[in-house]
């Protein structure tokens, strides 16, 4: 059966044991697509004049990035889900809209997940 959708969930205290927060996500990626779990340390960037290569486009660097753990397809700059050193968690979902799709290359939703983590 082909994958159909993604779901992200969070369980918060008091519904969890020991007041833990549980964050999870399933993915509609193909079963044989390699998913990496990767860590990127916090960085203060001194190369603000350089551009950052995302999946399809380049964007301006930001002065500082937080440490993150991400789950992502191996070929992609972005991520399916992640958490940063401050405990902020995020997962991507498909959002269906009514607007026409643009033909220009742009940031993917998964690029935004990495940038938000």
From TrEMBL:
GO BP annotations listed: proteolysis
Organism per entry: Pan paniscus
Family named by the database record: Belongs to the peptidase C69 family. Secernin subfamily.
Domain of life of the source: Eukaryota
MF terms in GO: cysteine-type exopeptidase activity; dipeptidase activity
Name this polypeptide is given: Secernin 3
InterPro entries: Peptidase_C69 (IPR005322)
């Amino acid at each position: 059966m082909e994958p159909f959708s993604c779901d992200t969930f969070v369980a918060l205290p008091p519904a969890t044991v020991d007041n833990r927060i549980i964050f999870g996500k399933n993915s509609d990626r193909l079963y044989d697509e390699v998913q990496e779990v990767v860590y990127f340390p916090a960085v203060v960037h001194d190369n603000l004049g350089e551009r950052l290569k995302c999946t399809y486009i380049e964007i301006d660097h930001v002065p500082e990035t937080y440490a993150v753990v991400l789950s992502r397809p191996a070929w992609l700059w972005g991520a399916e889900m992640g958490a940063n050193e401050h405990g902020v968690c995020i997962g991507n979902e498909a959002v269906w809209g009514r607007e026409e799709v643009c033909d220009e290359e742009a940031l993917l939703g998964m690029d935004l997940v990495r940038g938000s983590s």
